[in-house]
Write a structure and sequence with these properties.
The complex is a heterodimer of chains A (336) and B (174).
Chain A: H1 2-12, E1 17-27, E2 34-44, E3 47-57, H2 68-78, E4 88-92, E5 102-106, E6 111-112, H3 127-145, H4 165-181, H5 187-198, E7 207-209, E8 218-221, E9 224-228, E10 235-237, H6 240-246, H7 264-275, H8 281-307, H9 314-320, H10 323-333
Antiparallel strand pairs in A: 1-2, 2-3, 3-5, 4-5, 6-8, 7-10, 8-9
Helix pairs in contact in A: 3-7, 4-8, 5-8, 6-8, 8-9, 8-10
Chain B: H1 5-20, H2 27-50, H3 52-76, H4 83-97, H5 109-136, H6 140-162, H7 170-173
Helix pairs in contact in B: 1-2, 3-4, 3-5, 3-6, 4-5, 5-6
Classes of the chains: A alpha+beta (336), B mainly alpha (174).
Chain lengths: 336, 174
């Protein structure tokens, strides 16, 4: 693997002399891509350069079949914005290098939330730190929703029409995933899809949506969030979608705090102050229901690949057992 | 969604033999890993012979709900009827009368799973048909049927949740 990566660096950086690779290792976490970290050193025009990289390679089978081209485009566009996202270097479609397509990005400094706690609550013993991180977390969400996507050329990733099109597109997308991967009929999911189709809200505005904005998709160092990760589901849509996803009980389990970080009222108030976007709780609830349906679709994708024997990753097998928890959230939201 | 246990056992066994065992260096740890694999095979065999009861119960519950649905749909026929409801009633009737192969002592697990899947498929269609019908025709009887189906789904879900006590939270598993 090390030699293959070195060959690729030589191909991408023809001016780099004597590149060397160290600490190449697979990183646990991130179930939709295979993440491989490494450090590289080389000499260029007489200068020694050292840099840390992450390769995000398409997996054989995963939780989610996502569009790496879209992720590349969004991350490239975000470079000129205040949103703390990793710098992306290359998108490689040619399978000759590492057997499957991949992207190469900057390895950001900081630790994932899992390094702090495997509990649902961030920094359980340090509420002051949690409050600081929570504030930045909301600030980043407001930054994402304030991105000038037209100016950055992001119209090419697909602009929803006015009205209920934002909601319709997401319902269609995830219903297709469910139809493709489900193993047996799920009447509660059927009830939820019918409800979603009958209750599509109109979007007040269209923004960039991260679409996986939750408690463990960032890195932090000390008291600072250094990067927001996992952009592969991002798209243009209703900003309330990100709020609905974050508000899902699925992410907090045993704590009333949103994503284990902060109170809902505080979240909404601070978001409104920073973004200037009024929170519509009815729409947030709609996207919370959609979030549960989407999460079910994502899990079904993984369970299906586990059941079909395409993946032996036990995480995918285990997640299947958690679907009743999502159905329970749906049943509660829909008062079934 | 019911994760298929045979696949889960197979996946666990695969991981023990292919991902864990080659990484072990002590003979003791390797022997324990092999024992774990043998025990998983044994548990799978036991599961295949003893796990019918909850499914028999679940299928009976589904049959009862669908039986009630047939009664309501046929009674509705006097006031409102269309082709899709006619087709649905026939479909439910056919499913309720279908016989599945049985084992010598107990029903076969695969037959029960197939029956369960087919009953849920018909229930799914019933939910969709009731939703579509409610747009043109308001009926307290059909509303009551919808409530009955939802109550049944809630009970089924509660049963599934009761089996989850030892699972980690979503955030931990992911």
């Amino acid at each position: 693997m090390e030699d293959k990566v070195k060959d690729y660096l030589k191909f991408r950086m023809p001016k780099a002399e004597n590149p060397s690779i160290t600490n190449l290792q697979k990183i646990v976490g991130g179930s939709s891509r295979e993440n491989i970290a490494f450090e590289a050193e080389w000499t260029e025009e007489g200068r020694k350069i050292a840099r840390s990289f992450i390769i995000r390679r398409d997996p054989v089978a995963s939780l989610l079949e996502t569009d790496r081209e879209l992720e590349f485009k969004v991350l490239q566009s975000l470079e000129s914005t205040p949103v703390p996202a990793p710098k992306i270097y290359w998108l490689e479609r040619d399978e000759k290098w590492l057997e499957r397509p991949f992207v190469v990005m900057e390895k950001m400094t900081g630790s994932p939330v899992s390094a702090m706690s495997r509990m649902s609550l961030f920094a359980p013993e340090d509420p002051a730190l949690r409050a600081k991180i929570a504030k930045q977390w909301v600030e980043i969400l407001a930054q994402i929703h304030s991105v000038d996507w037209k100016g950055l050329g992001l119209s090419s990733i697909g602009v929803p029409e006015a009205g209920t099109d934002c909601a319709r597109r997401e319902i269609d997308k995830w219903e297709k995933v469910i139809d493709k991967h489900k193993l047996e009929p799920q009447p509660i999911l059927t009830e939820a899809l019918l409800w979603l189709k009958n209750n599509k809200p109109e979007a007040e505005r269209i923004t960039l949506v991260h679409a996986d904005f939750k408690q463990d998709n960032f890195l932090f160092e000390g008291e600072k969030i250094t990067a927001f990760l996992d952009w592969e589901m991002s798209h243009l849509g209703d900003p309330m979608e990100d709020l609905g996803w974050s508000c899902m009980a699925w992410w907090r389990q045993d704590t009333p705090l949103i994503c284990g970080l902060l109170e809902k009222e505080e979240f909404f108030r601070y978001y409104e102050d920073l973004s200037g976007i009024k929170v519509d709780e009815r729409k947030v609830s709609f996207y919370q229901v959609l979030g549960c349906v989407k999460m079910t679709a994502i899990i079904l994708t993984g369970v299906r690949s586990f059941s079909d024997g395409r993946s032996h990753d036990l995480t995918l097998g285990l997640l299947g057992f958690l679907i009743p928890k999502l159905e329970n959230e749906l049943a509660n939201l829909l008062a079934l | 969604m019911r994760p298929t246990f045979d696949k889960t056992f197979e996946g666990m066994n695969y991981t023990v033999l292919n991902d864990i065992l080659p990484e072990l260096s002590s003979t003791y740890a390797m022997t324990q890993a092999l024992m774990l694999s043998v025990m998983l095979n044994q548990l799978q065999a036991i599961w295949e012979k003893t796990s019918q009861l909850p499914l028999i119960k679940e299928n009976k519950g589904l049959r009862d709900v669908l039986q009630a649905a047939i009664g309501t749909l046929k009674a509705t026929k006097q006031d409102y009827w269309d082709k899709s409801l006619e087709g649905l009633t026939q479909k439910i009737d056919a499913e309720l009368q279908k016989e599945y192969p049985s084992g010598e002592e107990y029903p076969l697990l695969q037959s029960l799973l197939e029956e369960n899947c087919n009953l849920k498929e018909v229930l799914d269609r019933t939910i969709i048909a009731l939703e579509e019908t409610s747009r043109d025709y308001k009926s307290p009887a059909l509303d009551e049927l919808r409530k009955k189906i939802r109550a049944h789904l809630r009970n089924l879900l509660n049963w599934q949740l009761s089996l989850q006590a030892k699972l980690p939270s979503a955030a931990e598993a992911e």
